[in-house]
Batch of 4 targets.
Target 1
Amino acid sequence: MKSINFIIPGSPVGKARPKVVRLKNGFSHTYTPDKTVSYEELTRQRYLSATNNFRFEDGAQLCI
């Protein structure tokens, strides 16, 4: 089994709940808070950097 290790600098950031806003036309718009989007992107970049852009096959089972 291959092991992958990488470090994400700074304090951990919890995944925030999606936000929902009601538009004037009666519809709703859902979005992910910026802090969550930024931390997920940082995690993705650190992983790809540590693995030289390695991607698991669809359906791969991972132990984290």
Target 2
Amino acid sequence: MPFIVCKFAIKIYSDEIIVSFVNIVIETPELFNSKWIFVPLRLMPNKIQFTTSPHFAREMDDGDVLNKYRSYFHIPKIKGKAAVYLCGNSLGLQPKKAKEYINQELSDWAQYGVEGHFEAKMPWFSYHHFFTKSLAKIVGAKATEVVAMNTLTVNLQLLMLTFYKPTAKRFKIILEAGAFPSDMYAVETLVKHFGLKPKDAIVEIAPRKGEYIIRHEDILAAITANKSSLAMLMMGGVNYYTGQLFDMKAITTAAQKVGAKVGFDLAHAVGNVPLELNKWNVDFACWCSYKYLNSGPGAVGGVFIHEKHATNKKLNRLAGWWGHNEKTRFKMEKGFDPMPNAQAWQMSNAPVMNMVSHRASLDIFDEVSMKMLREKSELLTGYALFLLGEIKHLQFEIITPTPFEQRGCQISMLFKNRGKEVFTQLQKNGVIADWREPNVIRIAPVPLYNSFQDILDLFDILSNMK
């Protein structure tokens, strides 16, 4: 077990406070090659004071143990200068290794043709196997519980068809109001598929009047109020619009206690916040890989099916030949014999060219822990919230929860006026953010490639707007 023994010192620059190590004994020194180390604000709430001084951002970047990973990605340029890229919640940046990996597959295809399924450097027949260990680490699962396949909404439909078993008495689905449209459409068409009316079968949990986030107690109250008729709870792990991170563990426990199945759309959570899907006993989950997992536009999705279900060969599901027993798959015989794990939900063979960039990104995630990413994320977003709070001449409010445990990388700014104008000015000044109708600008400092200087640059540009 790696361990660190250290003494803290405070290094002071004018009114800034930086935490550093005086003495350090470390069993795994390759993880820490810097004199600085991040300490989560929740552990040292009175020790780190954010300031608007450039010295603070410089010192934090100099001491960032994750700073080297910025060079692993292509940073877009605007007018010949590296952009301030704060849009990883929409599309993550391209890993530099992606091109090399794609070229390798193209080379193997050219050299081997169909024999590449077994002779390629990374054989295509078993290509999906190369992802399970990495994905399991990221989502807190066993390797048998995850598989990279299809795309997000396809996977969501497949999983809900497996776990939604409505009866005359128990048929309702709880969904958060304002969910991403794919979730809303998927749930709407699911209940229609079973001959039910959405207004009767779907229970939406909304923020209270005048509020923007959904209170945890209101989610639990909705579960209790519908306990005798609730068949499934399916919601986002992180809301795409506000950036609210839900307490998935508590929600899962509460919904399962009344007899419902529980699933999560983790599009905005995977690679963003620590997850423990197996320990939380979540029934199923799915995600995309093009946001915080940096795998390219429209890249392959992923699924989690808890081992209690994944090993159950009798569980009904829609099937394809790649979910059939790997040992007898090419006998082409009648009778579906599912793999005894999450791979049983695969429809077709791996879309290799759509998965290559995913592998390039996961190789980076293999080098770091979600704990390290989360600790830097808390500092980046804490710094951003502090600086945004110093801007008084623009009329906006933060609709993302401020407590660390209720948010991830994303911060959503709701503008009372001039929102689109501000967004356009940011673009002209080299900031790539995200606009959501009718009046929200979303930013997402990603710990793998964003810097504290990025946040300060955003602040300076906003401060100079008239």
Target 3
Amino acid sequence: MKKPPAAAALPGAAFCGAGRPGTARPSGVDAIDRGDRRVGARTDRAGCGGGPRLEISRHELEERQGRVRERLCRDSLEGIVFFGSTSIFYLTGFAFIPTERPLAFILPVEGESVMFVPRLEKEHVRVMGAVVDRVVDYPEYPGETHPMRLLADLLRETGLAGRRLAADAAGYGSPWGYSGPTLEEVLDGRAPTLLPKLVEEHRMIKSEAELRLIRESARWGNLAHALLQEYSVPGAVETEISARASMEATAAMVRTLGPSLDPRGGEGAAAGFRGQVGPHSANPHSVTRNARLRRGDVLVTGAGATVWGYVSELERTMFVGEPSAEQKRFFSHMLALQETAFEAIVPGRPCSEVDRAVRAYYEKHGLWPYWRHHVGHALGILGHEAPFFDIGDDTVIQPGMVFSVEPGLYVEGLGGFRHSDTVAVTDDGIEFLTYYPRDLESLICGL
């Protein structure tokens, strides 16, 4: 298992522990050492000397579609309709805003692939460089003829309507006021074979290109978090701290990466507290409360960035001023829980074993009253993906999987204690993709 690098070697490390005695923030973004290059040294490539671009190549997208076609062949199916926006993005690179207007990707085993879109998305498909052979649009939803009936006509035209067809859902769905018939209803009672998890299963193992994007996300999450820590002082308001740190980190990200940066659905780098300030940090999924930081507060943070649709997760427990003895005790247990999880992540083991190892620590030290959730989850295109480090998930851990590792302790009236790191599974353990300092002394702010 690879350990996190020493703080002095970390991109943005000059910010870590900002405000502490003996530390000083460098002047200007050009002075922030990111390890492999200097932030602010503009480049239109992903690395020094013209490295790989920050994207998923057309070739890789075509390979993904090829793997789906191979699976359909094995199951004696002749085509599939995808409604899920995440699956459509994964297979074609087309990022869009799902609304009440149905959108579908038709992938036959043989023949042309087709993107079925509302008129307002027609040009967008081409602008985004989506890997698809043909685009067919309809006027609007609900329209004179419901879009699902127009989709059925398209399936008849392609010859798939009367054949062995699969789909990732029974029909289109959206919480944006949508209602409409299922595929079975518009295809004269011929129900497709439902494969809702097909693409999710493919997404579990990340390619080298995907890992590159997640690593880049982690770099900028590190910078955003360092700025967040610097601005976390008594009297500051959480929303203002978050906005300032996120804006400055995103600006540095844009200047550094230049034209090679394509968030593809995201908006750059971000860091914040999501309401986990003071006693409210004991709520694992709090919401922003516009809280004002006070000395003695426990802060649970979150930071990351979107790079070509991929994300990372960095979370830390920080303290405004010196922590109390009780806060130090729970912080120490939280670190031990996370270390326990790191050691348990071994290729070939089931995900459930990681949760069991951590649960044994809770049991041994009488910490069950402060338990709230499982150890972690996969991530990539989405912030939460399968599989999960949960006692009920026996998915086998494999190299190329990427997880958050975030066991926590939540003490009502005192605060929450949770670090989250993004790790990639390797042949013999894990690689840390996030690398912000985890020790207590580095996480005291506002002095």
Target 4
Amino acid sequence: MTIDLRFDEPIVYPPDPDIPEELVAIVHTTRDEIVTWIAAAVGSLAATWLVYERLTPLSGGFGFLVFWWALFNVLTWYLARVQWGAVRAHDQVVRVWITSAAAIALIPLIAVIVSIATKGYHALSWRFLTRDMSSTSSSAPISQGGIGHAILGTLEIVGLATVISVPLGVITAVYLNEVGGRMARPVRMLTDAMSAVPSIVCGLFIYATLIQPGYVHLSGWAGALALSILMLPTVTRTTEVVLRLVPGGLREASFALGATDWRTTRSVVLPTARSGLVTSAILGVARVIGETAPLLLTIFGAFTFAGNPFGDRQEALPHFIYGQYQQSQGPGTPADLRMWSAALVLLFLVLFVFVTARFPTSRGYVFAGTATALFCLWRFESTSAAIGAPITLTLIAVSAMAVALAKRARRRSHSSKGVLV
């Protein structure tokens, strides 16, 4: 049906009987589609095997897969055309392309995870996660020593870098997107330039400007400063993109109610983009948590637990992995097994940070608080039970308070929905 609005009264033309109006419904995958894909996959596999093994002298696994995939697309289109028509046939082929592209993108990720997991599980144990290397050499059996000091150093260094970078990145993004001015373009250009700075340059900058003159010692604080330089442009650019997605109508409604620019940004823009801000922080942490080059010149490594990042040399998981790689004498040696196990722990640590940050609800606070309490429990049990127990109880109490505050904030947000606070 066609409507012509060029005249004073709209003229409605009847639909052309020669052009069928066929619509494709966006629904979940049906059983008929699954059966069609299976039939196309089996038929194309049989035809490909016949061509490769019986009719032609072709060989090679990659060519076999490419020919199979191309024939699978043809059979999928033909079977869909016979059953549902041309429009659904084109839709099925596009779905096959998109699914294939997603599968190809996941192959490297799955390969990395499987490779690290199969090589790194040998040395994993509670002792390995809770002990340090103070009385253990790299050639000692994997039952001796551990990476507890590297885990502690990684959490403190990345945590300090996050505390430095996330507020600065959010403030810079708010200035670029909400305030603007003559300095907005140079700041944005500088942020883009900082995104391309090699990580070793950040370590050299901190070493030359702070460590060598004696302002800062080789410590976790110096490593955090180097990582914050890498983290800042990622957080800034991601946050700026997130703030651009906030509808302009929300800002206009806030201004219409008499709110100032700062009140609008604080009460409307930032709460609306809360999930995006969490994502930008996660991307910033993912950018720096595996960096080794900046730490080579700033933390210098350690073999024992160092809880003070401002005055002690510390160890981090990336630096520990690099050190074990240097001391490894081949596959299967103790240093090699420790290296792969530390890489697996680093992978799980990233997953832990991601899960905790993506669920900022009461369950997320309970999860983070309980894990922190358990961490401090084994961290202080070797020092003094009288110190470890109060700290653990305090952390559990803080977690319970965080749960109560989260529930209270959620009730307030629901009760004041639609009101500018």
